[in-house]
């Protein structure tokens, strides 16, 4: 009798735990719609980080955002893991006022924008115009060099933390950090949370 009783209790607790886990995952998966919002994702011509581009793009588009891809060339851009994407526009032709969010994708190739005056102009304009400005992996260094992270909480791939601090950023080391309209993320393991954070920020506008 005792064995049967404990078996029933064990089964009940197991099922209850599974249901609770499912409900939690469902709650976490619920994201607001952002139909009509326009986002431009800036990738390096070579060696952008595949999942830092693909996962946020997938999340944004699934919630109704229109995503435009920009790069320094209109030739196929290639990812570190083999992804290939055809840019829609050149970075130099981006009109910040046309977008609700600007996203700089990471990967080792993202260093091409670290000292790029056009990228710096885009970052500063995004802040001035109240746009959502987002970067992941090593790409936050571009924002730091543009002067828009001074006094702001931000994160970055750990190897580049000192570059942010040197420009006055308050480095937190978090996977995803948001300070006002600026969202930064630490690397590929944060790609999903990064995309979700952008969606939530867009939904509040």
Explain the overall architecture:
This protein is α/β, with parallel strands linked by helices. The protein has six helices and twelve strands. The chain has helices spanning 2-29, 50-62, 117-128, 140-146, 161-166, 191-203, and strands at residues 38-42, 46-48, 66-71, 77-79, 84-85, 89-90, 101-104, 132-136, 153-154, 170-171, 176-179, 182-185. It has a seven-stranded mixed beta sheet, with helices on both faces. Strands 2-4-5 form a three-stranded mixed beta sheet. A hairpin with a 4-residue loop joins strand 4 and strand 5 (84-85). Helix 2 packs parallel to helix 6 (191-203) and helix 3 (117-128) packs across helix 4. The radius of gyration is 20 Å and the shape is globular. The N and C termini lie far apart (61 Å).
User: Over the alpha carbons, how many angstroms does the gyration radius reach?
Assistant: 20 Å
- N- to C-terminal distance: 61 Å
Q: Which oligomeric form is depicted?
A: single chain
Roughly what is the average pLDDT, rounded to an integer?
91
The amount of beta strand, in percent, is 15-25%
Gross morphology? globular
Walk across the major sheet and give the strand order. 6-3-1-7-8-12-11
**Which sequence of SSEs, written as H and E, runs from N to C?**
HEEHEEEEEHEHEHEEEH
Helix content: 25-40%
The major β-sheet equals:
7 strands, mixed
Structure classification: alpha/beta
